[in-house]
Amino acid sequence: MIHIPEWNLNWQAVYRYDTPVELPAGTVVSMRYSYDNTDGNPLNPNDPPKRVTGGNSSSDEMAHLWLQVLPRAAFSEANDPRRVLQEALARHNVEKNPADFEAHYNLAAMLQARGELAEAMKQYGLALRLRPEDATANNAFAAANMAAGHPEAAIKYLEAALRSRPDYF
User: Fold this and answer.
1) pLDDT-derived band at 20, boundaries 50, 70, 90
2) For the whole model, what pTM was predicted?
3) Cα torsion at 132, 135, 137, 141 (round to 10°)?
4) Residue 23 CB neighbours (<10 A)
5) Over the range 137-162, which residues count as b (16 or more CB within 10 Å of their CB) and which as e?
6) Domain map of the chain by residue range?
7) Are 20 and 30 in contact (CB under 8 A)?
8) Is the pLDDT reported for residue 76 higher than 70?
9) What is the distance between the alpha carbons of residues 105 and 91, in angstroms, rounded to a whole number?
10) Which of 37, 89, 105, 141 has the most CB atoms around its CB within 10 Å?
11) Are 52 and 37 in contact (CB under 8 A)?
């Protein structure tokens, strides 16, 4: 259903099909993954390489398979129940823990994808208050500023991303 031959942390996200995939009754879904923590992997963040175990911290290896299973129904792109569900969960996480960087960042990314730039920028700003040096959030906030027609505002966030991680894409 999805194949990512060369994983990059900067691509970490929720993947959603444009059109839902119909799975017949009895379908079995499985996931196979492997990690390359050797010095032969130029994207290995550990130099020299070190043993990494599974967990939910950013320094851990993790592979999660989450499926949203919805009853077959006709729906429009604007009212996609998958998006409604994802956004409701993100808003719940932000309300439950306002100090949750990932919750603010994820909500911002969803809002930006939907074209709600003002609200997305608000959430990116809240995420950056929690982690001002985060390269990914600074880059995303810059992209939102660019999309909103504010290239001059984007520059400081791009510069912050580069200061934080000069090798950042």
Assistant:
1) confident
2) 0.56
3) 100
4) 13
5) bbbbbbbbbbeeeeeeebeebbebbe
6) 77-164
7) no
8) no
9) 11
10) 141
11) yes
Give residue 97's pLDDT. Answer: 92
The one-letter amino acid code at 65 reads L
> How many CB atoms neighbour CB 33 within 10 A?
11
Best CA proximity match to 165, nearest among 60, 43, 38: 43
Torsion of CA 109, 63, 169, 103, to 10 degrees: 30
Q: What's the length of the chain?
A: 169
Q: Distances in Å between the alpha carbon of 126 and those of 89, 92, 98, 113, 142?
A: 17, 15, 9, 18, 14
> At 94, is the secondary structure helix, strand, or coil?
helix
Can you tell me the distance from the alpha carbon of 7 to that of 43, in angstroms, rounded to the nearest whole number? 9
Domain 77-164: CATH superfamily, name plus number: Tetratricopeptide repeat domain (1.25.40.10)
The amino acid at 40: G
